[in-house]
Amino acid sequence: MVLVFRSVGSGVATSVACAGVALALGAQAPRAEPFDIKPGLWTLTANSQISGGPSMDVSKLSDQEKALLGPMLAQMPQPQNAPTVTRQCVTKEKLTQALFEPESSRVNKDTKCTHTLVTGRSSSQDSTFDCTGSNAGTGTVHVDRVTSESVTGNGTLAAKGQNMNVTFTFTGKWMGDDCRGIK
In whole angstroms, how far apart are CA 169 and each of 11, 17, 99, 157? Predict the structure, then answer.
């Protein structure tokens, strides 16, 4: 499962939010119980809320430039936080690992993430992640098993070096045994 947050507007907000989270699967934790869901192809639907973010420093602009820029900035469209649907393959081996990690570690070659399973039970997981590179940030992910074919979850992301925070919720549905080439 991959959570990719798309927004209209700032590319930085989109990049940092894409650092959000994915069902790509990271580090194993000792004594983790296998998460009791079916291996195979999963589809996730995520909703996110972005607060803060990059801002424009107008302190060095002249009064005339500020006057010209002000109305334009006020009319700019705000980012849209539309639901995002992604797919991920969950193998039997991955069921004892943290099931969600930042997507940017798979998409952006310069972003590296450490993903740690904090608590792994058959019915729920809690994990943390820490990313460096262009999409640097830290966060948490919690996922609950609803049935062997359904999960729900939530998490947070705090971008490093920016005043931006992302909170997200998601639902996941098992689509079948065959991952159809999806990793």
Answer: 22, 13, 15, 12
Closest by CA to 156, choosing from 102, 90, 120, is 102
Q: Is residue 68 part of a domain?
A: no
Residue 125 sits in which domain range?
A: 2-53+78-176
* 114-159 confidence digits (pLDDT tens): 888 999 999 999 999 898 888 889 999 999 999 999 999 999 989 8
Cα–chain center distance at 168: 8
Q: What is the pLDDT of residues 161-179, one digit of tens each?
A: 888 888 999 999 999 999 9
3-state DSSP call for residue 69? helix
Beta sheet of 40-52, edge-to-edge order: 84-90, 40-52, 164-176, 150-159, 137-147, 124-132, 112-120
How many domains in the chain?
Answer: 1
Would 64 be classed as within a structural domain? no
Structural domain includes residue 59: no
Q: What is the spatial distance between Cα 38 and Cα 50, in angstroms, rounded to a whole number?
A: 32
pTM of the model: 0.69
Is 73 within the bounds of a domain? no
